[in-house]
């Protein structure tokens, strides 16, 4: 190009308007737990690029609905130790009510050998003493016995009430929600398909007919006390697999879908709750299920965990007397009918003196349908809503 005159180089500004504000996330910090589930904190700031430079703005300048989580769950590695137990002893009484005990020990998952209990001190430990019954004594009058003795009753959560004698003054300045809606009735065994969708079944056993429903998506939920697990067998199925019709079984510890050979299937939830969702395209098709509950084959909860099924209630943590340290991470499981959602409002939080307000002192709420978690620190009187019908709360420290 040497013979050709070279034009002068020039530079033009193409756009003078600043870019819209956006959220900026720095890499997450270390995990709060050396093994198992923990939390990692990441810094989330609102920034704007203006003439090639990044400017820090107030959080309100960025869309609140798009703000990333500041605390995210993390797992560095699976824990190498766990509590293990001996077999239960014989019932202490030959008849009537008695107790059973068992020994606990700390087990190394690598060597399968017993180790010093100090290695398991931060892990929840199952019960080592339980009540039981050896049957009525001869001198007792034989009466009706309830099944599942020793298990907690399946009742809705207690209603939140405040009286002049129960510290109700601490709620007087808060904007409480309006009066509770009527309670969701406990569902009995469904003989017909009418109105079965969106229901919560709390009986120990029953039959659910999900055929002939009008909705393309039909969801039911089954709930039992902690300490039980639910099994479901498919009695009949008229699903059209080639048309994409399917039934989904989901719980806290399992997920299973199916269409073909369903009448031969037996589904075990492995926990005390199960959701069944039927997706059908053709009217009249569906499945008929029979569910049963039994004592769980493996401990999946801590002794301080609670299960709530009611439409409204109060959650208090810690449950034990003041001054007694809470070793395990206590959880509250909330399950309502699939047609409802859950709202949680923090009414009162007291963390004591400043020395107890650490980064490991927080409340974690998990939306089970999306598996998204929110973490609340300090004395924040928060309000939280779920996208589905299941929620879990963890109280740390």
UniProtKB/TrEMBL annotation:
The domain of life for this entry's organism is Eukaryota
What is the organism of origin for this protein? Answer: Alectura lathami
| Any Gene Ontology biological process | extracellular matrix organization
User: Which GO molecular function, any one, fits this protein according to its record?
Assistant: metalloendopeptidase activity
The protein's UniProt keywords, in alphabetical order, are: Secreted
Q: What is this protein called?
A: ATS13 metalloproteinase
Which compartment or compartments is the protein found in? Secreted
Recorded GO CC terms: extracellular matrix; extracellular region
What PANTHER family does the record point to?
A DISINTEGRIN AND METALLOPROTEINASE WITH THROMBOSPONDIN MOTIFS 13, ADAMTS A DISINTEGRIN AND METALLOPROTEASE WITH THROMBOSPONDIN MOTIFS PROTEASE
């Amino acid at each position: 190009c040497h013979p050709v005159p070279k034009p002068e180089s020039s530079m033009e500004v193409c756009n003078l308007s600043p870019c819209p504000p956006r959220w900026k996330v720095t890499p997450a910090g270390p995990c709060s737990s050396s093994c198992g589930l923990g939390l990692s904190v990441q810094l989330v700031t609102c920034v704007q690029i203006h003439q090639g430079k990044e400017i820090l703005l107030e959080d309100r300048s960025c869309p609140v609905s798009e703000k990333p989580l500041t605390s995210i769950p993390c797992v560095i590695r699976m824990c190498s130790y766990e509590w293990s137990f001996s077999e239960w002893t014989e019932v202490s009484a030959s008849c009537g009510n008695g107790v059973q005990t068992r020994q606990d020990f700390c087990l190394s998952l690598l060597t399968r050998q017993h180790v010093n209990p100090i290695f398991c001190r931060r892990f929840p430990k199952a019960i080592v003493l339980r009540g039981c019954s050896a049957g009525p004594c001869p001198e007792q009058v034989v009466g009706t016995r309830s099944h599942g003795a020793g298990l907690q009753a399946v009742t809705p959560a207690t209603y939140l009430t405040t009286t002049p004698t129960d510290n109700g003054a601490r709620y007087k300045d808060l904007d409480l929600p309006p009066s509770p809606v009527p309670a969701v009735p406990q569902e009995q065994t469904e003989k017909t398909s009418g109105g079965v969708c969106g229901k919560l079944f709390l009986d120990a056993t029953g039959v659910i007919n999900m055929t002939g429903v009008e909705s393309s998506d039909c969801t039911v939920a089954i709930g039992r006390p902690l300490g039980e697990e639910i099994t479901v067998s498919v009695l009949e199925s008229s699903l059209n697999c080639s048309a994409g019709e399917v039934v989904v079984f989901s719980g806290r510890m399992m997920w299973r879908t199916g269409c073909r050979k369903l009448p031969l299937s037996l589904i075990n939830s492995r926990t005390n709750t199960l959701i069944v969702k039927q997706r059908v395209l053709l009217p009249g098709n569906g499945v008929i299920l029979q569910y049963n509950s039994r004592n769980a084959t493996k401990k999946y909860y801590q002794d301080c965990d609670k299960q709530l099924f009611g439409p409204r209630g109060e959650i208090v943590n810690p449950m034990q007397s003041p001054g007694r340290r809470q070793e395990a991470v206590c959880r509250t499981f909330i399950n309502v009918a699939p047609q409802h959602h859950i709202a949680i409002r923090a009414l009162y939080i007291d963390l004591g003196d400043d020395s107890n307000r650490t980064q490991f002192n927080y409340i974690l709420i998990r939306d089970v349908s999306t598996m998204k978690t929110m973490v609340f620190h300090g004395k924040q009187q928060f309000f939280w809503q779920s996208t589905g019908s299941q929620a879990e709360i963890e109280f740390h420290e």
